[in-house]
Structures are given as structure tokens and as C-alpha cells.
């Protein structure tokens, strides 16, 4: 087994974990980890483009979320609380300022 196969398996496990943990909001991921499901979708799309594949933003998000983004959003995404927004702002200052 090569490194690429291991990395792919780990990535599939990460996707499965994030799909199971729909209770964890993207803003909380951004606050604590500096990335979220949308970031993963962007990275996935970038990887496709680097390899000559044309993948839309919606297609990439559907792959990461396991369903169309709009459906995931309506099922699971909650409005950010003032506390979450403040924590997000603080986290952005740490990484960008």
C-alpha cells in the first residue's frame, strides 16, 4: 500500500466522520481548526483542477457533504450565535493579524 492510498483512506474516513457529526457547525470548525467543510470542498475542487478535471463548486460541496449543500444547510445549519461570531472574529485575528 502506498502513501496516496493511505491518505485517500484517511480522507474518506474524515468525510464519513464529518457527515456523521452534522451537529458540529462549520463556524465551530473554523473557530477551532481554521477550516470547515466548505474549505475541504474548495481544496477538493482545487485538486481536481490541478489534474485537469472540471468540477463545479456545487459538485465539490456535494461530494464533501454527501448531499447537495442547500439540503445539508436546511437540515443542519443553524444561525451563528453572537458568541460564535465573536469567537470567529478573534480566531481570524490570530491567523491573519
Automatic annotation (TrEMBL):
InterPro entries (alphabetical): SMc04008-like_domain, SMc04008-like_sf
Protein name per its UniProtKB record: DUF1244 domain-containing protein
Domain (SMc04008-like) ranges: 24-89
Pfam families: DUF1244 (PF06844)
Amino acid at each position: 500500500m502506498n502513501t496516496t492510498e493511505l491518505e485517500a483512506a484517511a480522507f474518506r474516513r474524515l468525510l464519513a466522520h464529518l457527515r456523521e457529526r452534522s451537529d458540529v457547525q462549520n463556524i465551530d470548525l473554523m473557530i477551532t481548526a481554521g477550516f470547515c467543510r466548505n474549505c475541504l470542498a474548495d481544496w477538493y475542487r482545487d485538486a481536481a483542477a490541478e489534474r485537469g478535471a472540471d468540477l463545479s463548486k456545487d459538485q465539490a460541496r456535494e461530494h464533501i457533504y454527501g448531499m447537495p449543500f442547500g439540503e445539508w444547510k436546511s437540515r443542519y445549519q443553524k444561525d451563528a450565535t453572537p458568541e460564535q461570531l465573536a469567537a470567529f472574529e478573534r480566531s481570524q485575528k490570530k491567523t491573519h493579524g
